[in-house]
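Escalation from tier 1.

The customer reports that the assembly of two entities below gives different structure tokens on two consecutive runs. Tier 1 could not reproduce it. I'm attaching the input and our single run for tier 2 to review.
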Amino acid sequence: MSHGAMSNARYWLAHNAGVLTAVALFAVMFTLYVSNHSAGLTPAVATTAANKAVLLALVAMAQTLPVLTRGLDLSVGMVFVLANCIASTIVVGSVGTGLLGVAAVLGIGALAGFINGAIVVWGRLQPIITTLATGAVYYGISLFIRPSPGGDVQSDIADLLTGQLFGVVPAALVVLFFIVLVVWIPYRRSILGRAAYAVGSNEQAAYMSGVPVQRAKLLAYTLAGLLASAGGLMLTFNTYSGEASAPIAGAYTLNSIAAVVIGGTSLFGGWGSAIGSIFGAFVLRTIEDLLFVFDLPPLWQPLFQGVVLLFAVSLGAFRILRVRNRLELFT
Amino acid sequence: MTGVDTGAARGPSLAGRFGIDRSVAIAFGCILLILAGGALYSPAFLSPEYLLQQLQVGAFLGIIASGAMMVILLGHIDLSIPWVVTLGAMMATAMVGWGGAAGVWLCIPFGVFCGAVVGTLNGLGVAYLRLPSMIFTLGMNAVAQGLMVLHTGGFAPLDQATKAMHFIAVQRSLFGIPNALFVWAIVGLFVIYVLRRTAFGRAVYAVGNRESAAYLSGVNTNRVLIGCFAFSGAMAAFAGVLLAGYSNKAYQNMGDSYLLPAIAAVVLGGTNILGGRGNYLGTIAGVILITLLQSILSVMQMPEAGRQVIYGCVIIVMLLIYGRGAKARS
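Tier 1 run:
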């Protein structure tokens, strides 16, 4: 290997260290889970695990995009629930009308995201407080649509997307892979996607360099809404019903932030990727499954989960060992 | 005025001296507007009895918001409030059983102490591990939740409020003014004193504006961070103790509905969510505003869905009126 290739590889490793840590963590935990599961790695076990994990993975992907611009979207969980409630109302009937409903739900999700982005960009309010407020609005609308849990969903689409492809591959993973392929990768390679990283690193410098700051932010929040609503759709396909649940919305919002951090994305913006967040989400989900197979007393589970979460996010503290100047700590 | 800009007008005007700036004035204006609107609906909204009751309910939020404000002034955020509120309530009520004869006296300080411990841990994580407060306090919230689930399920502790808690939270002893209001007033005066009259308070604003500059000026910034987080934890737990007195019982999830209103109250009071700017008068206005808004919407029998939508819209619209942030231009 030539010297140039060596340093390229080292650079790539350093750049993706966060993602690779999350992948390794997930691999270890999932192996532990499967080897202790009474049934082993059957397609059914994998599908159940995938169906649950993909929900958080999509919401975590959604959270990644605003975070990369040094923002935050505290409404992802509410958009997720809103999409769930709307989908349980309009994704019904024949396959054709069901697909129309799917498109409508995704459109509404994107619109919700766009409203967040518009308030952040043109209203120039802080993302954290903006999305806190719009989250309340979206939750209110979900409650209006579905005051009590219920509804239905087009079962052909639901069975297709939550079952197995060729009897082996969990279809939910294929959906996730498809979304990465048509949303994340083109976005990452687009001008506005790169602009999002520039804005997250240094908004002033990005502006002075002629980066389309406003459009980059708008697109990031809009896509966040779209991805969160995709998660809400998948939830509907799993549960066959809609529920305007504040605890679910809150839990998904908070877990999405944790997944983003575990996946190696910096909350200070400009660094990370949605791929990392997907594995961060898988890690969080596998923790719950592990508790299940190891038969931990139910009373201890929330504490164990909390400690693991705290420990996982504390891994980010290793950066303080690398700083050469104490002033670098204050960023 | 010398020293740190606390967000007040720069001249020595009377309004500036009391910390009344644009956002605080608008917040108080909105309070009057809500009251006027309520009075049109029913004159009972202006009765002293109704107003005192609102202030009593608002006192719990006010105490939590006092702690949250100290952390927000640093440019950080404390997301562990929900379960620290519950932790304070549960530890205080359980202490009655653990402490024997002294338990009745120890319970309130013990509850507040437990909250301060969690807050100190938050501060240590943010200060020494340099983790983003948003994610570290979130983790602590999960740990506190785990501890409380274990505590209630595993040890079947006492969860009844003591007479003293009930006395502070519900009863009125002086001129019919609720005791809880006095407690909030004491907490508020303490925060105002610390922020305006002590070096620690100046350091809080300095760290919120630029931590590296404060550090280079010789401020022990880690001490400031830990102090504010500990205060936030202690106040959340204290409010939990009072809430237990108010509802006579400590129960799970009792703190869930206080996180967002507390942050919203602080921000509606004109405190900058990025830190470094804000004053306590604004927080008072924010707390009263949120409490009145919630109360009036429930009196009008607005369904929960409509309440959430109005709640969110009010926050956005008010912040837009306060003035938007600076453009990305150097």
